[in-house]
Amino acid sequence: MSRWSGRRGQVEPLAAIVAVFAVGAGLTVYAGVLDGTLPGQDRQRVAGPTLDHLESSMGESGIVEPGALSDARTATAPNGYHLNATLETTDNRWHAGPAPPQRAQQASERVSVRIAPGRVRPGRLTVRVWR
User: Fold this and answer.
1) DSSP state letters, the chain
2) Cα–Cα distance between 64 and 123 in angstroms, integer?
């Protein structure tokens, strides 16, 4: 057999595509199972979406209303979880919910806060969630 034989190292295109698909599907399944079994991943799954939902229920056009904090807090608490929400600006602080324990999951985001009609200040909305 010559060194440049046409039979050497060749694979049918369909078999190569099937092999690449099988490897990709295997990696996807492995990553999904591994992600579900790693400890400490629950924090990201509860606090982040709760923060997003709370922020959207507190105001319009990305501007939150401090007066809506306590009403929105009760509406956005996940089933089986307790929720503490804090809204802060440089001059003011609003708080709703019971005091969180140390183990509480936390998420925080910068927001715009309507202090009065026509007055908007930068602030931070922090959510603590626990069972």
Assistant:
1) --TT-TTTT---HHHHHHHHHHHHHHHHHHHHHHHHHSTTTHHHHHHHHHHHHHHHHSEETTEE-GGGHHHHHHHHPPTT-EEEEEEE-SS-EEEESSPPPTT-EEEEEEEEEEEETTEEEEEEEEEEEE-
2) 9
CB 98 within 8 A of CB 84: yes
Closest CA to 47 of 99, 82, 93, 97: 82
C-alpha distances (whole Å) from 83 to each of 60, 97, 131 are 22, 6, 9
Give 25-84 pLDDT, tens digit per residue. 888 888 877 766 666 555 457 898 999 999 988 988 889 999 999 888 777 888 889 999
User: Could you give the CA distance from residue 111 to residue 88 in angstroms, rounded to a whole number?
Assistant: 9
Please, which pLDDT band fits residue 98 given cuts at 50, 70 and 90?
very high
Domain boundaries, the chain: 11-40, 47-130
Q: Whole-model pTM?
A: 0.66
